[in-house]
């Protein structure tokens, strides 16, 4: 597995990591045995970067990851977590006292004295624009509570504010159906030496090509209850693409993969490979619900470079079917 420098953290991480939202909640239930098997398959496939958050399963994901790392202390895992989404999203809730409490809880869940990387978890724009936010994170580094800090953001504007504040890493949605960061975030991140962590690379599974308009998701799955943005930013669910539009575009994407993609590669693997080939990307963090999915995701790193014909066809697909729905929003 190829590794790249994660911004100014001084750490090299695998270009394909593992997102563990699925291991906590909001994607249907994943039991402890399946969670551990997923983590083990990722690690065995060369993954060294794991992303979690204090809100995933109200700490369940962090505890899974912390227990797994404790059982594998010498295998070079770098664990990023996120904080801030366990309270109502108002700027006045982002206080030094809250930061300290969130940090203490995550360190306890993960079983460490110092967190590898803490990211603000899609906070209000005002929080990212406030210099006091970044000063407090620097104080936490000085106190030995965190080693590095960054932000997970929804919009390109928020990404720029985080970079101006001093974020060492950015986590942002980028995929074949969400391309705006290619223009407005990645060039500046590369210039500033900021690590870029890509989430939602498969557009909540659309780019696997497995869904139809008749697919039914569980009641507790965000692809059901957040389809209209009722619970959190709609851009997190199917990348903000209307579901029926996304299914049709994913069908065409699957056809393009068959015509122009590497032999024996799945659409999901090609979608992941596409992300890793974008200049400025450090790592991409697909989720997985089981060991087979985790191993297949990691195998995307071994694919040959995508062809110019495929890249051109994918850009055309975006412009024809997707751009009008997402490009102006995030």
Automatic annotation (TrEMBL):
Gene3D superfamilies: NADP-dependent oxidoreductase domain. Coiled coil: none annotated. Transmembrane segments: none annotated. InterPro entries: AKR2_Oxidoreductase, NAD(P)_OxRdtase_dom_sf, NADP_OxRdtase_dom. Residues 16-318 form the NADP-dependent oxidoreductase domain. CDD domains: AKR_AKR11C1. It comes from Schaalia canis. This is Aldo/keto reductase.
């Amino acid at each position: 597995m190829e590794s790249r420098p994660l911004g100014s953290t001084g750490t090299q991480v695998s270009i394909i990591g593992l997102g563990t939202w699925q291991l906590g909640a909001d994607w249907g239930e994943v039991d402890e045995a399946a969670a551990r098997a997923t983590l083990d398959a990722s690690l065995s496939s060369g993954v060294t970067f794991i992303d979690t958050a204090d809100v995933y399963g109200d700490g369940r994901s962090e505890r899974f990851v912390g227990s797994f790392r404790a059982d594998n202390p010498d295998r070079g895992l770098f664990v990023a977590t996120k904080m801030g989404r366990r309270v109502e999203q108002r700027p006045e809730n982002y206080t030094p006292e809250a930061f300290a409490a969130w940090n203490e809880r995550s360190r306890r869940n993960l079983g460490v004295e110092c967190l590898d990387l803490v990211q603000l978890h899609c906070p209000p724009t005002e929080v990212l624009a406030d210099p006091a936010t970044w000063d407090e994170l620097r104080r936490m580094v000085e106190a030995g509570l965190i080693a590095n800090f960054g932000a997970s953001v929804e919009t390109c504007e928020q990404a720029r504010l985080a970079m101006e504040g001093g974020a060492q890493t950015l986590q942002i949605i980028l995929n074949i159906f969400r391309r705006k960061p290619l223009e407005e975030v990645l060039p500046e991140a590369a210039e500033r030496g900021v690590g870029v962590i890509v989430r939602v690379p498969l557009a909540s599974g659309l780019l696997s090509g497995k869904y139809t308009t008749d697919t039914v998701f569980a009641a507790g799955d965000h692809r059901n209850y957040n389809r209209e943005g009722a619970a959190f930013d709609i851009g997190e669910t199917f990348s903000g693409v209307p579901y029926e539009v996304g299914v049709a575009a994913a069908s065409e994407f699957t056809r393009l993969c068959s015509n122009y993609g590497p032999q024996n590669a799945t659409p999901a693997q090609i979608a992941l490979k596409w992300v890793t080939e974008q200049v400025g990307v450090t790592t991409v963090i697909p989720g997985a619900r089981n060991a087979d999915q985790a191993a297949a995701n990691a195998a995307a790193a071994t694919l040959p470079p995508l062809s110019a014909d495929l890249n051109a066809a994918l850009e055309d697909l975006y412009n024809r079917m997707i751009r009008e729905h997402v490009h102006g929003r995030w």
